[in-house]
Amino acid sequence: MNRTIREEAARPVxxxxxxxxxxxxxxxxxxxxxxxxxxxxxxxxxYCRTLATGxxxxxxxxxxxxxxxxxxxxxxxxAFCRWADDLGxxxxxxxxxxxxxxxxxxxxxxxxxDRCRHPVFVALRxxxxxxxxxxxxxxxxxxxxxxxxxxxxxxxxxxxxDYCTRSANPVGRIVLHLCRQTSEQAFxxxxxxCTGLQLANFCQDVSRDLxxxxxxxxxxxxxxxxxxxxxxxxxxxxxxxxxxxxxxxDHSRELLESGLPLVEALPGPLQIDxxxxxxxxxxxxQRIEQIDFRVLETRPVVTKLDALRMLTSSLLRAGGxxxxxxxxxx
Length: 330
Known about the structure:
By secondary structure, the chain is mainly alpha-helical. It has two domains: 7-59 and 67-133, Farnesyl Diphosphate Synthase (Orthogonal Bundle); 151-318, Farnesyl Diphosphate Synthase, CATH 1.10.600.10. It has 17 helices and no strands.
């Protein structure tokens, strides 16, 4: 069956990957007869746009608040991340996931050699060239998804934070390249936000992660509060577990709040999106506190009403910043 490129983009990544019949990890991507190999830039952009907008709830940065000229570039970055994420999580076979992630790295290397074949990389190449995005940032993301295939829990916080430097922080740094804000201070604030948000998500999803045999609460932290692996697997909400979750929430909040100065350092049109991104993580932590840290029993969620309140607050803060700048100018 010959599908249009937009129809192809709407299919699950796992199904698409099977049609590409890649040979991962070879250093050179293998030959393929896929009908959408080496598409035009227009078709590749359409593919990424369809993929990103089809998962809109997972990609809040591409919103009507962003400068219009950045939308396609954000779609392209999202499409790369969506593919890498799904190759790691949706294939259902560890060996095959590693092969496919190896193939995705091969395609990335071809892209940086200006030999793009897959629609995602055909679209991503102009983004990379325009904003000078380093290959290492994309490669680090693939590395983190590879690590997920064989590292299911962490002994120390240091190990977990190292994982975050590859699974979360590269996304923020790529965004900063697209915003042309690449100072070391901006990167440091962004890393703090991205790590804090990922840790907040780990706190939110303790039970869900247990369902897929993953534990993202470091063993040294669990030991500190007397929470055993068996307690987690049995979903036992002990006093120690509640103290542990408070400790993890406090650490996540500290990181998120430490990165907040990034908002005012960005150009006006971008401030609201980054503010919302950060406030979303803080809202998750607040919801965890409101259920008394009992995340093994109830998964805390950020509601549409929460999102509306955050948007309103972000708009008001942005208005206040503009007013202060005008006052200082006079």
